[in-house]
Structure formats: structure tokens, C-alpha cells
Amino acid sequence: MSRPPFFTLPVCARAYRLATSRGEFAVHDAQPSSRARGTVLLVPGFTGSKEDFVALLEPLADAGYRAVAVDGRGQHESGGPRAEGAYEQGELARDVLAQAAALGGDVHLLGHSLGGLITRAAVLADASPFRSLTVMSCGPAAISAVQQDRTRMLIHALTTLDMEAVWQEMRRVDAENGPAEDTSPELDAFLRRRWMGTTPEQLIATGRQLISEPDRTQELAGVALPKHVISGALDYAWPVPSIDAMAKELSAVRTVVQGAGHSPNAERPAATAEALIRFWDLAD
Question: What DSSP assignment string belongs to the chain?
Fold first, then answer.
């Protein structure tokens, strides 16, 4: 899961609930101080949240882009129903379309990891609200075989245990697999709070999407939007060569953020923001 480098919102941003035709969604909304050059909608990944983009908000706003990071349905502070059908990919894609409409349309869209699959589905359903699509740390189809196995184990645990028990089991497995990552008490508390705030049916349904997603690259290549594929130099969820191949088939701008893994937005935010701004400036 992504680990935000900090949690305090910059002065240019505020937290509130964005009202849409499909309900309200918790967002962090960063406004540029000068004339806005565009609006960016940032969609998080599996087990993620709007906080995964907190380090991007200020540099994007400084460059003139209104940046809106969202908790999707059932994620962290947005809440959602206790029914797996509510989290089918088509439902989540329609949520993204509603969020874009609520922001006035003409939006640069970015999806991280699972968010890349959801935003792809949204664009394939209706590309008209969008100015461009950026797919971050996401490949063309299902996640790698090793990650599929891990995700199946998580789905099984979520169907048999409560969220607290699953959290404790994940911590135990992580400890057995090697030294714990150096995290602050603040980060530990946030990660647990985010986990406990996420609807288990959302994790089950989206986990199944990650292990069964078909390759829709050819379909996406036919959509007349500027496209950007960005990832770290390493990625545990999708092999980087598969991300490279997808970008080539899409005729997309390709960015590899050196020194970053699956979450360049959190691990190397300055370099990531620079690449995003460069792409959006060209897309305009």
C-alpha cells in the first residue's frame, strides 16, 4: 500500500465532500494562486486514498493546475454500501465520470494502480469530460502472478475475518517476511485508520478485478486523448517491461521515475510532479 510522506495539507488545499450525481466523495482540493491552467482529477489505487497524492498538491497548484484527489466509493473517508456489486468496475468508472462532471468537465484524469484500470474504464465509457489520461504504475491487464496469489489470500481473509483481524494478520506476515519498514507512529496510525475505514466489499470486489482484468490496451489506443504512462523504475504489481509495451501500443508519453517503485507520487513526488506538469502543458 502507498505510504504518504506527510499528512498536513498545504495552505492551497482544503478537505471537503464533493457532491456529485452519484453521491458525495471525500476530496483534497488544491487551488492555484494564479490563473488556473486546468483541473486534474487524481484517482487512488487498491487499499489507497486521496492522501497518496498529498505531496503532489502544492507543486501542481504552483504550476497553475487545480488538483483534486479523491477517495473512491468505499475508500477511507468516502464510505460505501456493504455489497460487492456496488464496486464493479463499471460502477466505479461511472463514479469517476460523475466526479469529473462535478468539477466542470475538461479534466486531466490520472489513475494510480487499480485507479489506472478504473480511469481506463471511465475513458472507454465516455472520453468527453477529459482532456488527457495519465496511467500511473498500472499495466495492461491483470497484476503479476505473485501478486495475484497474494491478492487471492487477502480476498479469502476478508471473507472470513473482520477488518481488524485481517490487519493484524497482515502485520504478522509482513514481520515474518523481513524487517519492518521504518515508519513513524503517525504513519502507522494513519495506515490502520485508512484500512479500518475502507469497506471490505470494496477490497474484495476490486481485488478480483486486479486478478482478472483483460487487456484493453487496443481499445484505449483508439480513444483520441493525449496519453501518459508513468511508473517507477521498479514495480511489484506489473512488470515494468509490460508497462513499457503498453505505452508503446498507446503511442503514449512514457516517463520512468528513477528511484521510485510502485508509488512514485509518494516516493519521488518532486520528479513525478515535474513529469506530470510537463505532459499536461504539452497536452494543452
Answer: ----S--PPPTTEEEEEEEETTEEEEEEEE--SS---EEEEEE--TT--GGGGHHHHHHHHHTTEEEEEEPPTTSTTS---S-GGGGSHHHHHHHHHHHHHHTTS-EEEEEETHHHHHHHHHHHH--TTEEEEEEES--SSSPPHHHHHHHHHHHHHHHHS-HHHHHHHHHHHHHHHSSPP---HHHHHHHHHHHHHS-HHHHHHHHHHHHH----HHHHHTS-S-EEEEEES--SSS-HHHHHHHHHHHT-EEEEETT--S-HHHHSHHHHHHHHHHHHHHH-
pLDDT of residue 181: 62
Round to the nearest angstrom and report the end-to-end CA distance of the chain.
32
Domain boundaries, the chain: 13-283
Q: What does DSSP assign to residue 129?
A: T
Rg of the chain taking only CA atoms, in angstroms:
17
Q: What is the pTM of this model?
A: 0.96
- According to DSSP, residue 34 is labeled S
Q: State the Cα–Cα distance between residues 116 and 101, nearest whole angstrom.
A: 19
195-245 pLDDT, tens digit per residue, is 999 999 999 999 999 999 999 999 999 999 999 999 999 999 999 999 999
Name the residue among 115, 2, 5, 110 with its Cα closest to residue 55. Answer: 5
Can you tell me whether residue 93 is helix, strand or coil? helix
Looking at CATH, the fold of the domain delimited by 13-283 is given as Rossmann fold (3.40.50)
Indicate the SS3 state at residue 253.
strand
C-alpha cell at 70: 479523491
Taking 3-state DSSP, the helix, strand and coil percentages for the chain, each rounded to the nearest 5, stand at: 50, 20, 35
